[in-house]
Design goal:
Low-confidence stretches: none
CATH superfamily of the largest domain: Collagenase (Catalytic Domain)
Mean pLDDT: 86
Number of helices: 25
Number of domains: 3
Oligomer: single chain
CATH topology of the largest domain: Collagenase (Catalytic Domain)
Shape: globular
Strand order of the largest sheet: 9-11-12-10
Length: about 675
């Protein structure tokens, strides 16, 4: 009986699948015909979906009307409530419907509901089932689409041949390299240029050569990143353990560069010699930082100490090994465009992949962002058999990786309305004062060991905006580096020089700037913000300064309830490392899992502060934060099980807005 039942189920699946495929085939055929006639437009879907095009007479025939409601119905079309139809790459897609001067998306609301997230977002949430195991937040579902559109616009800024900027010159040279397939020759030019900076005539010169490689993001016996200095806002260099090349890497790279067999043999023997050494200390490690102003700290130096001991035994082999190190660096630059035999997680040389939203960050994130090497910049595709279009795309990716500051500026110019930016800047001092007042107030202060000290820290928070002009309220104090390119430089040598310029900028940050002048830790298009609580330095990313968080046409109530609520949340993260009073904190945050308390207290202090500004009442604020944090959630049973295993650092979506609304109802 079991076997027969199983057979019946399998037969049903086969039949249903066959019928489904036939139906899909018919639909695709119908779609192709109507697209050819111009009677429909393609919906962005893999199921051959389409939407018919109806003329004015057809609309009247099918009871169309000319009211505002009729317009909204027509523009929404097949899209969920709160979204509207548009064309993206000649396909019908659903994008966020914009509302102003009030940012409240009334199309998404279901006002008869009781829970705030249902009341202000219920129709949008219910419009589609959530098949993914990841939630779809209302405020972030279109982030990827916007990022892609901005990326295209940013690349266009660097396409202009008359533009003399470093990224434009690199991009033009890179496209020529792809067209002529001259990557191997360019790698050799980069190798020759870097070898001119390598000297292995003494122990001191070896240490300085190690520093030269590390400063160009090459694989080297040490890795140089940034960390916090002695003061809260000061920076220092961190010298930590790097890498030792394997024999196969030594032999392969030197052979590809045309180095003779004797040198290859000595380099390979030296690599084996390094592995036989006992690790120890390096008293003169400061020579690695020769010529660099500013402080440094040294950590694990096992690879460097083994290299130096091997060098004392075999200086000639050490010289050959440095040729291998330099060759590995030249080929790593090539792989950053052409790809390699393995892949790495690609991001900017001073950036991290997107992370949790609106977080407090510290030394681990700083060191992770500034410890990237050329291995991390490796392209995701292999261009040996790639099309020209893929090659140009690889050049665009390399531009974003090696010129992150220039890209940040271009993203800011593309995404941020200057009037909106000035409004946020004008409002910032008042929001910062309101956060300090909330921390001193009767609701938040009982939870803190020293609320007055925390309030003073809030008043000292310096907020920047990635890519903002230097002379503006959110701009950094130090200009971008400008690598010294010559007309004879190939594009790969340009990348190597750009890497060195990025390190030079870090050196200036250490001895002239500080934490608040750091580049953004995450890509500028990310819809995010963060704070270094210990340094009291915050960062807004331009990706956040778009709807539904910000718009130059938003009224004050909307602007304060959305993007300035986020600003207040980041300022309130000064509570993250402050002493807490356990019992009052547990009482205030009784509805939150303990793992979320850092974010929860920042949320409550933020909405408290926004109410104190007088720009919006608690009821309106509840609606705005509910819409920001509402989401389509996967199956409640499975999701509940996963959340119970690991609640995470942030309050659960939907409940996050509900909890803030409950707090506002109780206290305001």
């Amino acid at each position: 009986m079991v076997d027969e039942s199983l057979f019946a189920v399998l037969a049903t699946l086969v039949v249903s699948s066959s019928v489904g495929l036939v139906s899909l085939s018919v639909q695709c055929s119908i779609q192709a015909d109507c697209l050819k006639r111009g009677d429909c437009v393609e919906v962005d879907s893999w199921t051959c979906s389409f939407s018919t095009v109806v003329d004015e007479a057809g609309q009247l025939l099918f009871s169309g009307n000319e009211t505002v409601l009729g317009l909204k119905t027509l523009t929404r079309g097949v899209c969920p409530p709160g979204e509207a139809q548009t064309l993206v790459d000649d396909r019908l897609a659903c994008t966020r419907m914009r509302f102003y001067p009030s940012a409240m998306n009334v199309e998404a609301e279901s006002l008869g509901e009781a829970e705030p997230h249902r009341k202000f977002c219920g129709r949008w949430v219910d419009s589609q089932r959530q098949y993914s195991m990841e939630p779809t937040p209302f405020a972030f579902y279109d982030e990827g689409l916007i990022e892609n559109q901005v990326a295209e616009a940013v690349v266009s800024k660097f396409k202009v041949r008359a533009d003399a900027s470093s990224p434009s010159r690199f991009r033009s040279a890179c496209v020529r390299m792809i067209t002529s397939n001259s990557g191997g020759t360019e790698a050799r030019l980069a190798f020759d240029w870097l070898m001119q900076k390598i000297d292995t005539s003494s122990r001191t010169s070896v240490l300085r050569s190690v520093g030269t490689l590390a400063r160009h993001y090459c694989d080297a016996p040490v890795q140089i990143s940034l960390t916090f200095g002695s003061g809260y806002r000061e920076l220092a260099f961190d010298i930590s353990s790097g890498t030792t090349l394997a024999n196969d890497e030594v032999l392969t790279d030197l052979y590809a560069l045309g180095v003779d067999a004797d040198v290859r043999r000595m380099a390979s023997g030296f690599a084996s010699r390094i592995l036989r050494q006992e690790a120890g200390g390096v008293g003169d490690v400061g020579e690695v930082m020769h010529g660099v102003e500013g402080g440094w700290v040294a950590g694990d130096l096992r690879h460097l100490s083994r290299l130096l001991k091997a060098y004392e035994e075999d200086p000639e082999g050490g010289s050959a090994y440095f040729q291998a190190l330099t060759g590995r660096c030249a080929f790593a630059v090539r792989e950053s465009v052409f790809g390699g035999s393995s892949e790495a997680a690609r991001t900017g040389l001073d950036k991290l992949p997107p992370a949790d939203r609106f977080v407090a960050v510290g030394a681990p994130e700083l060191q992770a962002a500034t410890s990237s090497t050329l291995r991390n910049a490796r392209a995701r595709r292999h261009l040996v058999r790639a099309t020209r279009r893929q090659g140009v795309s690889a050049c665009n990716d390399a531009l974003a990786t090696f010129f992150p500051g220039h890209v940040d500026e271009a993203v800011f110019d593309t995404m941020v309305n200057r009037h909106l930016y000035d409004r946020i800047g004008a409002a910032y001092p008042g929001v910062r004062s309101a956060v300090a007042a909330a921390i001193r107030g009767s609701i938040i202060s009982p939870t803190l060991g020293d609320p007055e000290a925390v309030a003073r820290n809030a008043l000292d928070v310096d907020m920047r905006v990635a890519g903002a002009p230097l002379d503006s309220w959110g701009g950094k104090l130090l200009p971008l580096p400008s690598p010294a390119f010559s007309s004879n430089d190939g594009s790969l040598l340009m990348l190597l020089k750009a890497a060195g310029a990025l390190f030079d900028r870090r050196s200036r940050l250490v001895h002239e700037g500080g934490v608040c002048d750091l580049p953004a830790l995450y890509p500028a298009t990310t819809r995010n913000a963060y704070l270094f609580p210990a340094a009291r330095c915050g960062m807004l990313l331009p990706g956040l300064l778009v709807p539904p968080f910000a718009d130059n046409l938003y009224d004050d109530a909307s602007l304060y309830s959305r993007v300035l609520y986020v600003v207040a949340h980041e300022i309130a993260h000064v509570t993250a490392y402050a002493p807490w009073r356990a019992a009052p904190m547990a009482e205030l945050l009784s509805g939150y899992p303990p793992s979320t308390h850092v974010e929860a207290i920042a949320d409550l202090a933020a909405v408290n502060a926004i109410v104190l500004t007088g720009k919006v009442n608690s009821s309106e604020l509840c609606g705005h934060v509910s819409q920001i944090w509402c989401a389509r959630m996967p199956d409640a049973g499975i999701l509940g099980w996963l959340v119970s295993l690991s609640p995470g650092s942030h309050p659960e979506l939907n409940k996050r807005g509900d909890s803030m609304c409950s707090f506002l109802d109780r206290n305001f």
